[in-house]
Amino acid sequence: MKIAQIAPLAESVPPKFYGGTERIVSYLTEELVAQGHDVTLFASGDSRTAAKLVPITTTALRLNPHVQDAVPHHMILLDEVRRRADDFDFLHFHIDVIHMPMVQGMLDRSLTTLHGRLDLPDLVPFYRAFPDHCLVSISDHQRLPMPPVNWGRTIYHGLPADLLPANIGGDKDYLAFLGRISPEKRPDRAIRIAMAAGMKLKIAAKIDNVDRAYWDREIAPLVEGNPLVEFVGEINEQQKAEFLGNAAALLFPIDWPEPFGLVMIEAMSCATPVVAFRCGSVPEIIDHGLSGIIVDREEEAVDAVHQAVALDRARVRAAFDARFTAERMARDYVALYQDIIAASAATPSLARHRAATPGLLIA
């Protein structure tokens, strides 16, 4: 198939540091190429890919100090996609909402993966206004706040099988927290859990400007002078294997409706079990007692740390291999691309009048 992957421009594909959406776009794009498809990636010019790259900006917008407004750059992106749209059998968007009016005439060969949270009030009238475009959720829980829309499928994220190798042997003497310093990620919980469990905690996380006050007020006082807590800072992809692989367990103490939680499967790939709070997608990703322990309260999490450390790390990796590889993710998407094309061919009015064939693409 000739496939277009349309990425956001905030980060390169793959991102140099934090950037979950762009990372998944990269894994998907490279795997589609490996599976023999003709893929074109629309992304920032500093992206790296085996696909054909259409560079929209010179660098990722977050790394360009001169960029004050991302919208004009995404308008250029959309115009470039529009001009080339007839070159592709299928167009796969990862840019949330901004393209929806443009693709109304392409509903028979396009879909959008929704990578973020959907419990925001402004999204309800938007998706009611565009009910026909095929949407992909990254967990079943992510769908819950939405009005009736044209869900194509839930497709879980996947990682290249050789990206983060399993680290099964050796002593693992610390707990890990990886991601972003923010109130919903609850690094404060991670610190208290580690201290109560009597284990060292290493925090590898970025601090966005919007969360700087939260760090200064809530987290820095818990870190500074604490012999059990080490703040590593933001790490790149190459550093993750060592950071996660050498950890006894990953703490994922979130307090928000997490749409997926990429760090959970990154840990699983390293054969590192996860202690996670029962929020959002967590019960869909973690097999309780196999790849990690799911808890509801901090008190449970302290005991769960010791349970998780005792889990068979080979089985943790096996759970990853069974469910969360990029190969599986790409095949799931290709199957959906083909289903949409076939359904539209069988029902030519589908793109304009989904109501005439209710539920045809609903999973």
TrEMBL record:
Gene3D superfamilies noted in UniProt: Glycogen Phosphorylase B (3.40.50.2000)
One Pfam family, short name: Glycos_transf_1
Family matches, as InterPro entries: Glyco_trans_1, Glyco_trans_4-like_N
Domain Glycosyltransferase subfamily 4-like N-terminal: 18-119
Chain ranges of the Glycosyl transferase family domain: 168-316
Name of the featured protein: Glycosyltransferase family 4 protein
Source organism: Sphingobium olei
